[in-house]
Specification:
Layout lengths: L1 H26 L6 H13 L5 H11 L5 H10 L16 H36 L4 H15 L2 H16 L18 H38 L2 H8 L4 H13 L1 H5 L1 H19 L4 H11 L2 H29 L1 H4 L2
Helix pairs in contact: 1-14, 5-6, 5-8, 5-12, 6-8, 7-8, 7-12, 8-10, 8-12, 12-13, 12-14, 13-14
Length: 328
Amino acid sequence: MLNYIIRRILIAIPTLIAISMIAFVIIQLPPGDYLDQKIAQLEQQFGDSSSIAQADALRHRYGLDMPMPKRYLKWAGGFIHGDFGESFRYEKEVKDLIWERLGFTLLLSIGALLFMYLTAIPLGIYSATHKYQAGDNALTLLAFIGMSLPGFLIALMMIVAVYQIFGIPLFSLFSPYYQNADWSWGKIGDLLQHLWVPIIVVALNGTAGLMRVMRGNLLDVLGEPFIRTARAKGLKESVVVVKHAARIAINPLISMLGMSLPELLSGTTIVSIVLGLPTVGPLLLQALQDQDMYLAGTIILFMSLLLIIGNLAADILLAWADPRIRYE
């Protein structure tokens, strides 16, 4: 098992390098660069062109006067000692811009992931064991509604509903009092008070889809011969369903775990824009619009790293849940 994990980690390294090269090239495919956009904006505002010398100095400062391979090597080489370059738009170090936002993004994504699996698996088991009954029909209807509604619409509906019922404004993750305050127990409590609604909004689509997958898989497993044998031995129905059937039916859901992280990250982008959340999604969108290559490339690379970690975690959990995989 340890050798398998080490091999997967070694494979991840060239994968990350390839992703970083592709992302770096794609970001710079549109014509011009950030300084061209800035000069054009100055011409519209003031009616004259910026100094050519000043523009050349800025291009040299950000390495825009170098060929693309050298720019990539300069940026990628900085990862060794934690230097991700400097943002053009914000004129700040990239690491200073993304660290706090990356923490909020992970908190929101991991919370949504836990909500999805802790909710979808029990509901899927209940739906499969009560096939075509009133509870199954109600859950099926709710699942189809949850899968069809886009995240931004759910976010808007939740904003209105929560404010009308609880009087809590959902914009941002903090109340105005704690927005720029230092971390304290009060600020953590305020964060938790605001965090649960974005988690539900982000996880709703995925929860509905996972519940349907769990229901279908469990129905297939419940028809297998070994389940009939277990029932014939006189085992309790709860033992047959949970210990024997659900343990096999859950395997595809574990395999989907690795692909859930990028979907959650993309979902948090739209929800974060609607709810005004300080995650990396809106920052990445702005960086792509500005062709802020160091900022956008770093965020894309971190998201790719999360995808690889998610796939590795899914493989380990799958081997732990299904002994057949451990012996292959």
